[in-house]
Amino acid sequence: MTFNLITTARAVPDQIITNSDLAKIMPTSDEWIKQRTGIERRHLASTETTESLCIDVAQQLVQANSIGPKQIDLIVVATMSPTYSMPSVAATVQGAIGAENAATLDVNAACTGFVYAMAVAHDMAVAKGYQNVIVIGGEVMSKYVNWQDRSTAVLFGDGAAGVLLALNEDGQDHYLGDAFKTFGEKGRSLMADFRPNNSPFAKPVEADSYLTMDGHQIYNFVIKKAPVVIEEVLQKTGLTLPDIDWVVFHQANARIIQQLSKKLGLTAQQCPINIDEYGNVAAASEPLVLNDLVASDQLKPGDKVLLCGFGGGLTIGASIFDY
Ligand code: ACO
């Protein structure tokens, strides 16, 4: 069985907010944000929702190919900011595009979500013989952000991107392997969307529902632990970093990516960065990079791609596939 990435698509909110726009509403500057993060602008939802962005991506994926929606067997959406907890974003996408034969689920592993979603999609497809699978990362992070907190408000963006995968009988699995690690004891260093229990039977609890982050702790954690998980997936697949054409890191901060590249001995060419355009879009950030690579014809058939996501949980995941 072969598992192929057939095509990609993206949908981002029309509204673009630059660093200078943010500087008008909080004590920050274009210089600080660019220097510390690499971000220049981000797309922020005005009317768009995680659902609407993901539906847009799924419609493009189906329309760009000769398959009809009824031929989609599985839709997996990676998101930490679903429009509703129920129904799942994936179920709403399924209904909207008329993919009446598709199984659906959302995966929440924060910024590692897309790596997990690809693994879930691959393993379910192989186990069940699914032919056509859609995997989307979609987020509206702006609804979780405390717009009074400059230390986090400048970092995040909204958007969605996804891939169409197909499983065909040609004898080779193009999904080569994955590795995941969770450090749950550090989970409170990155939190969002606490919802108090307002039941008349529950004790009231005071807590911040906005996104909170210990930026330093996350930064150091990623620099230390991401290479360990990358090493594990390389060992599992029998590959080395020079075999890898593209390392698609979660776009949390350009400095993190540059430091990881240096530590691992990767070239800038191997590690595309698009955080300047989108900010940190959590589970959508890696498919947005994949979409940029496909849309600009940089990703060539046979290229080996290593995905590495990291963030809330704290979690880290890495996987390798060839295009
Ligand atoms: N504009 C101007 N000044 C600011 C801003 C801002 N937006 N935010 C903070 N500052 C100030 C601080 O108050 C501080 O001032 P002080 O020195 O007077 O106290 C100074 O800038 C330096 O702040 P630091 O927090 O030390 O800045 P740092 O260089 O660490 O950068 C950052 C902060 C960008 C958040 C960095 O720590 C980072 O990227 N961390 C990792 C984030 C990450 O990877 N998150 C995981 C993914 S998210 C997910 O999973 C959902």
From TrEMBL:
Enzymatic reactions: malonyl-[ACP] + acetyl-CoA + H(+) = 3-oxobutanoyl-[ACP] + CO2 + CoA
Gene Ontology MF terms: 3-oxoacyl-[acyl-carrier-protein] synthase activity; beta-ketoacyl-acyl-carrier-protein synthase III activity
Gene Ontology terms describing biological process: fatty acid biosynthetic process; secondary metabolite biosynthetic process
Pathway field: Lipid metabolism; fatty acid biosynthesis
EC class name: transferase
Domain Beta-ketoacyl-[acyl-carrier-protein] synthase III N-terminal: 105-173
Catalytic residues (positions): C111, H250, N280
EC code(s) of this entry: 2.3.1.180
A GO term from the CC aspect: cytoplasm
Residues of the Beta-ketoacyl-[acyl-carrier-protein] synthase III C-terminal domain: 234-322
Superkingdom in the source lineage: Bacteria
InterPro entries attached to this UniProt entry: ACP_syn_III_C, ACP_syn_III_N, FabH, Thiolase-like
Keyword annotations: Acyltransferase, Cytoplasm, Fatty acid biosynthesis, Fatty acid metabolism, Lipid biosynthesis, Lipid metabolism, Multifunctional enzyme, Transferase
Cell location: Cytoplasm
Segments of this protein annotated with the region ACP-binding: 251-255
Coiled coil regions in record: none
Pfam families: ACP_syn_III, ACP_syn_III_C
HAMAP family (alphabetical): FabH
Protein family according to the UniProt entry: Belongs to the thiolase-like superfamily. FabH family.
Assembly mode: Homodimer.
UniProt remark on domains: The last Arg residue of the ACP-binding site is essential for the weak association between ACP/AcpP and FabH.
Function recorded in the entry: Catalyzes the condensation reaction of fatty acid synthesis by the addition to an acyl acceptor of two carbons from malonyl-ACP. Catalyzes the first condensation reaction which initiates fatty acid synthesis and may therefore play a role in governing the total rate of fatty acid production. Possesses both acetoacetyl-ACP synthase and acetyl transacylase activities. Its substrate specificity determines the biosynthesis of branched-chain and/or straight-chain of fatty acids.
Protein name per Swiss-Prot or TrEMBL: Beta-ketoacyl-[acyl-carrier-protein] synthase III
Gene that this sequence comes from: fabH
